[in-house]
């Protein structure tokens, strides 16, 4: 989810909307309100619901909502702001930073909510599995590129 959110905000359309909102919302607050209402609020609601269900926070809606906002700011905020200011990093650097932010967030949240050890272990295994999947995807892409190059030389 974190990687998808970062990818989404860094699209040309996402950056244009972010820059427009940053530039004009002081003069026209309705632009910022619209962006929050139709973009950020549904994302926050989804994340809060996810945290509530996965971490059994049914009696702690405030923690789930605060965690959702923290996740969004920690994982998406920095790359989005940097890109809006014209600082564009390569995709690998963005992915590494997002992965680190996700790990920091997950481990911090789990310790705050006192999640059972089985939830913590499952989350750590899931994070490790995600890293392995990313590594495999990179390796597959490199192998595909190498095969294309090889095919060119064989012609």
What does this structure look like?
There is one protein chain. The chain has 155 residues and is an all-alpha fold. The protein is 85% helix and 0% strand. It has helices at 2-9, 12-24, 29-54, 61-84, 91-113, 117-154. The chain is flat. The mean pLDDT is 81.
What are the defining features of this structure?
mainly alpha, single chain, 0% strand, 155 residues
Number of helices: 6
Q: SS-based structural class? A: mainly alpha
Q: What gap, in angstroms, lies between the N and C termini?
A: 42 Å
- Taken in chain order, the helices and strands follow as HHHHHH
| Unreliable stretches covering 5 or more consecutive residues | none
Total strand count, please? Answer: 0
State the helical fraction.
Answer: over 70%
Major pleated sheet:
none
Overall geometry comes to flat
Averaging pLDDT over every residue, what do you get?
81
Q: How large is the share of residues in beta strands? A: under 5%
Q: What is Rg? A: 19 Å
Topology summary:
Layout: H1 2-9, H2 12-24, H3 29-54, H4 61-84, H5 91-113, H6 117-154
Task: Give a brief outline of the structure.
The protein is mainly α and 155 residues long.
């Amino acid at each position: 989810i974190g990687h998808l959110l970062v990818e989404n905000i860094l699209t040309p359309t996402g950056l244009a909307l972010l820059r427009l909102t940053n530039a004009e919302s002081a003069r026209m607050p309705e632009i910022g309100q619209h962006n929050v209402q139709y973009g950020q609020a549904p994302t926050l609601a989804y994340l809060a619901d996810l945290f509530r269900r996965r971490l059994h926070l049914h009696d702690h809606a405030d923690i789930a909502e605060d965690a959702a906002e923290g996740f969004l700011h920690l994982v998406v905020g920095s790359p989005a702001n940097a890109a809006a200011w014209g600082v564009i990093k390569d995709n690998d650097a963005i992915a590494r930073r997002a992965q680190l932010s996700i790990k920091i967030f997950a481990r911090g949240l789990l310790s705050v909510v006192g999640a059972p050890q089985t939830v913590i272990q499952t989350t750590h295994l899931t994070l490790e599995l995600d890293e392995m999947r990313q590594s495999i995807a990179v390796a597959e892409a490199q192998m595909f590129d190498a095969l294309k190059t090889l095919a060119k030389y064989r012609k």
